[in-house]
Structure formats: C-alpha cells, structure tokens
Amino acid sequence: MKRGNTMIKIAVDGMGGDFAPEPIVKGSIEALKKFNDLEITIFGDENKMKPYLIDHPRLKVIHTENFVDMGVKDPVFEYRRNKNASLFMAMRYVAENNADAVVTAGPTQAVVVGGHLALKRMPQMHRVAIAPIIPSIDGRGKVLLDSGANVELKAEHIEEFAVYASVVAEKTLGRSNPKVGLVNIVTEEGKGRELYKEAYELLKNNENINFVGNIEPKEVLTSDCDVLVTDGFTGNILMKTMEGTALGFGKMLKQSIYSSFLSKIGGLFMKKQLKQLSKKMDASEIGGALVLGLNHILIKAHGSSDSYAFYNAIRQARTMVEKDVINTVNNVLARKRD
User: Fold this and answer.
1) What pTM did the predictor assign?
2) Cα–Cα dist 10/156, whole Å
3) If we measure between CA atoms, which residue out of 40, 81, 47 comes closest to residue 64?
4) Which residues lie below 8 Å from residue 170, measured CB to CB, with a gap of 6+?
5) Which of 193-212 are b and which e, b meaning 16 or more Cβ less than 10 Å from the residue's Cβ?
6) 14, 21, 66, 228: which is deepest, by most CB within 10 A?
7) Can you give the pLDDT at residue 1?
8) What pLDDT, in 10s, does the model give residues 196-213?
C-alpha cells in the first residue's frame, strides 16, 4: 500500500513470459521513465538481462538463474523445489513487505499457486480469481472474472468477486457506481444453472453491488456493464473465444481488403479507422489480469507480451496500489460481514 508521498514499489519477474527477458526489461524501463513515483526491482538472470538494462536510480536487479518454465506441469511441486525461481522470489519479496505489487508474464498456473502460497489469500475472500480487463466496443474496457482460476465455485464466491471487481472498476477504471452483470445463457431471472440462480439472488440483494441482471455471452462486448462475473470454466471459454474471434475476424478482414484492387483502395482510405479499431480491441492497451483475492496486488501479463503490453501491466499494478484497492475491498467486505 502506498502511504503519503512514498514511492510505489513493484517487484518484476524478469524471466517470466514467452520472450523474456527483453520485453520485460524494456517495459519496466519505460514505466520508470513514465512514472517518477515508481521503483522497480527485477528478479532474473542478470547476464541475460544485461543487454537491455540501463543504469537508473529507481531500478534494482536481484540476480537468479532460476525461473519457472512456461510449460510447467506441476506448479505446486515447482514452488517447493524451485524456490529461487524469479517468479517466486519476486512474490516473497512482496510478501515480506519490501514492495507493494508483483507483475509477471509467467505461466498462469504457477502464478496462481505462487500467489496462494507466498502472498496468501485475503481473510475476507474465500477464493481467488483471475480478472482480466477485457476490451469493449466503447473502448473503456470491463472486468471479467473468474477467467480460469476456479472450475467450480459457490454462489457466495461469485458475490465476493463482484464486490472486489466493483472496487477495481471504480478505483482503476474510473467508473462511478459500476454496473455488474452475471454471465448466463439467459437474461431472465430465475433461469440457468442452479449456481447462477443462487448467485443472482445474492448479487441482487447486496447493497455494495450495482447489479443489473443476467448478461448473455453475445452481449459481452456491447453491454454497458463494467463488471462481468461467472465461474472460471465459463469465463475462460468466453475469454478465449473472444480472443480467437478477434484474431479470425482480423484475418478475414485482411483477406477481404486484399481481394481486389478496389478493396485495396478502400482499405487505404479506411487505414486510420481500422488502426483505431485494432487499438480499441487490443488487450495489451489495458494491461494484464489481476489475480484477485490475495493480500497483495498480483498482475499476470500475457505470456506473449511485448514491451508495451508489459509496461501497461506495470501501470495497472501501480494504479491499484496508488488507489489502495485491497484495503478498500477489505473494508467493504467487513461491513457486509458485520
């Protein structure tokens, strides 16, 4: 948590990601140049990072040659046997209150497991969730959770996620009284799986949530909801379907533009608008996914992040620390318990 005018300190996993360490180091340096109140500690192989590092008074490197492979099969075993991995060292650094947040592009399962074991779950939260900020038609983005941490959930877990995500939407996305929708196969109340029926009642009766009802998957991009809640299985499929659809649509559009001379001419006239559309739908413009429910901010950037995407993940972590998101969530949930 940031106190007064003190620096915001971020611990970075320098070796996590498909293309580490280059985009990780470059994104970190870009964040330091952008924010004067930011200090970054990068954990990783200094020899491999050296070509991309610069001397900077607010940048520290802690050397370790160990890292978590992106294809790790057993993250619990990996945490126990590979404690000096850059990811886990960064997490312990934050858990020991040497920094305020962790940012990594490492493997999702290892990030969630490490978060549980090193950063610990908040007493007020019974589950953690992966909560990316997904693109939307209006360009403002919205929070989707859970997108993969939990295959099975109880209705009260979804309620807790909605409370937390509402704080995130208000504090970091600037939404006043953010709207919450429950992703379901129908819009009518009292329909769908039993889990969603129970969750609907809890969300509807929680005064800390501006619940607007069920949202069908086809409405995800077009609805005015700021927060979309569901179970991890549904959320993961939804998120990957969106990613695949955007990629496929982009390829089909490109094929259409290059299909004839006249369409190429039209494409030239539309170049600016197409670039704006691509930027609006690009998740790297927003940041990474918050691993929600832990005692400290943990941001999971996409494994294939370039330096710009990783910079945005750091920016996202900085904002959440600055806005004191975790303490706010704890206070809101405590009021409900009372």
Assistant:
1) 0.91
2) 32
3) 47
4) 176, 177, 178
5) eebbeebbebbeebeebbbb
6) 14
7) 46
8) 999 999 999 999 999 999
